[in-house]
Automatic annotation (TrEMBL):
Keywords: Cell membrane, Cobalamin biosynthesis, Magnesium, Membrane, Transferase, Transmembrane, Transmembrane helix. InterPro entries: CobS (IPR003805). It catalyses: alpha-ribazole + adenosylcob(III)inamide-GDP = adenosylcob(III)alamin + GMP + H(+); alpha-ribazole 5'-phosphate + adenosylcob(III)inamide-GDP = adenosylcob(III)alamin 5'-phosphate + GMP + H(+). This is Adenosylcobinamide-GDP ribazoletransferase. The gene is cobS. It comes from the Bacteria. The lineage of its organism: Bacteria, Bacillati, Actinomycetota, Acidimicrobiia, Acidimicrobiales.
Length: 245
């Protein structure tokens, strides 16, 4: 029981700025997608407060601020590092070295700007209906599954902590969680929401496949980028289809 409790605390502390302590273990992997409920709820609150000004754009900008703050900007940083590492014509080791460097290049800047614009424009268009919280959970489910199913590009990667916990039953639990949240998301909107979910998961998986092709495996940055890109793609497609819940 203590191991379970520590794993839950570890997952929340790892994925948010909440200082709960704990450790990362198999239980953390199961809980990791569910931290999307905390982040999504906080972002929704941020949007609601900003939207009181009478401008959905203000709400969207405040939502973005809350999103970056509660996650400590880790996933945005992951998008930047992944973009720099996967772009260009260099060898595998050089790509990994680039991703470890503290500086950012043009590909990083452009990628983060695109992600930010996608999220702000989607929230400005849609508002923040409840079903959007499901996107936060699904993006994190994709992150957790990627850490369980694919090889590591380097031994020092943070994902090694979770790779050591690989169990077949964990994959099934995460898949069931994803299915359950997908059903709940449909219940709060409509069957049309399956389209952005599918496209978003496909987009995140595309980043994952490209990274494995170029790096030979995954890193913590790749995992973070997969989740944020998948989540942002869901938001944009939902906005394009005008799915308001």
């Amino acid at each position: 029981m203590q191991r379970l409790f520590n794993g839950v605390r570890g997952a929340v502390a790892f994925m948010t700025l909440l200082p709960l302590g704990g450790v990362l273990n198999a239980a953390s992997l199961v809980v990791l997608p569910l931290t999307g409920l905390i982040v999504g709820g906080a972002v929704a609150l941020g949007f609601w407060i900003g939207d009181r000004s009478g401008s959905s754009l203000v709400g969207a900008v405040l939502a973005l601020f809350v999103d970056a703050a509660i996650t400590r900007g880790l996933h945005y940083d992951a998008v930047a590092d992944t973009a720099d590492g996967l772009a260009g014509f260099v060898g595998r080791q050089r790509r990994i070295a680039i991703m470890d460097e503290p500086t950012v290049g043009a590909f990083a800047v452009v990628s983060v700007v695109v992600v930010v614009l996608a999220r702000v424009s989607a929230w400005s268009s849609l508002g923040f209906p409840v079903f959007l919280v499901g996107f936060f959970v699904l993006g994190r489910a994709l992150m957790a599954l990627s850490m369980l199913c694919f090889p590591l590009a380097k031994e020092s990667s943070l994902t090694k902590i979770f790779a050591n916990e690989r169990r077949r039953w964990l994959i099934w639990v995460l898949v069931l969680e994803a299915v359950a949240i997908g059903v709940a998301t449909v219940a709060f909107s409509s069957l049309w929401v399956l389209i952005p979910i599918f496209v978003g998961l496909l987009g995140g998986s595309g980043i994952l496949g490209f990274a494995i092709h170029r790096l030979g495996g995954i890193t913590g940055d790749v995992v973070g980028a997969v989740g944020l890109v998948g989540e942002s793609t869901m938001l944009m497609v939902a906005a394009i289809l005008r799915i308001h819940g």
